[in-house]
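Design a sequence for this backbone.
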């Protein structure tokens, strides 16, 4: 992927098991357990308000 992008990608773990998975991965840089829910809320607010 680094070759395709030309730089190192940022890897984010999301969801309820994000911390657990991140502990056993060397590639995950950031853990955000609510990122997907925040994105869904953002879409909802843009569409229905």
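Sequence:
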């Amino acid at each position: 992927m680094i070759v395709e992008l030309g730089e190192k990608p940022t890897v984010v773990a999301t969801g309820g098991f994000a911390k657990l998975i991140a502990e056993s991965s060397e590639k995950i840089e950031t853990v955000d357990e609510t990122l997907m829910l925040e994105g869904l809320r953002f879409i909802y607010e843009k569409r229905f308000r």
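The chain has three helices and two strands.
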